[in-house]
Design goal:
By secondary structure, the chain is an alpha+beta fold. It is built from 4 helices and 3 strands, in the order H-E-H-H-E-E-H. Helix content is about 55%, strand content about 15%. The longest helix is centred in the C-terminal third of the chain and has 24 residues. It starts with 10 loop residues before the first helix and ends in a 5-residue tail after the last helix.
Length: about 110
Amino acid sequence: MPKKALENLTESMFYVLMAFRGGPKCGIDVSQFIEQKTAGRCKLGPATLYTILAKFEKERYLTEIAVEGRKRTYQITGKGVQAYEEEVARLRHCVEDADSEGWMNR
């Protein structure tokens, strides 16, 4: 059975949606949020970031709310919030499964 679009988010996609949970942002704001939130562990180049933003806009996870020259500002939609919350729940289940094995403390 084919997977539906964006069924599981990549780490970069997850952090992009997380950034928008804090309010509308442009690409630079998103990059700065992710770099700060992950202490530099997760870095998005412009090509990756703008590919994700375009994908999210196409899937209606984000909507464009302002354009000033080349600067575009987006905000998360209800569908984007739902996708983010589903991914948080999926990741929590993964961690619970790992914890239940008890291998981290060995």
